[in-house]
Amino acid sequence: MDRQCSSCGGFCKKSGCERENVKPEQEPVGYLCENAVGHKYFRWKKPPSTYKPIALYTAHATPQRIWQGLTDEEVVNRANAEVFAEAFARGVAWAELKLKEKNNG
Fold first, then answer.
1. Angstrom distances, CA of residue 42 to CA of 48, 58, 69, 104
2. Which residue has the higher pLDDT, 41 or 5?
3. Is the pLDDT confidence value at 22 over 70?
4. DSSP single-letter state for residue 15
5. H/E stretch holding 88
6. How far is CA 6 from CA 3, 49, 76, 79, in A?
């Protein structure tokens, strides 16, 4: 069960503070705040410290990967493989047809 962390004020796992593993270059996605009455609410922008903001981070922030297309060689190799597969399938169908003719007729 989660407990309120003494380090960050958030609700961390029993194993330790989750904020310790956060990389410093990672930006928070929002803030969990508390008003004077004790109600908790979410804010996108960082509020003043009087609202006791707790920074919220994504669990596994990974940088966007750049899309890589296929090279011309990969496209040609795939096309050749498909042509070969189609020719092979037609050859098998032709052999089955000849076997049926030979055995049935």
1. 13, 15, 40, 78
2. 41
3. no
4. T
5. helix 72-104
6. 9, 17, 60, 61
Residue 42 and residue 29 in contact, taking contact as beta carbons nearer than 8 Å: no
Listed in sequence order, the residues at least 6 apart from 70 whose beta carbon sits closer than 8 Å to its beta carbon are: 78
Here the tokens at position 88 are 């092979």
Closest CA to 57 of 81, 79, 26: 26
- Quickly count: other Cβ atoms within 10 Å of residue 53's Cβ: 19
The amino acid sitting at 26 is Q
Query: Whole-model pTM?
Result: 0.34
For residue 57, the 8-state DSSP code is -
Q: Where are the domains of the chain?
A: 3-56, 66-105
Sign of the torsion formed by the C-alpha atoms of 70, 71, 72 and 78: negative
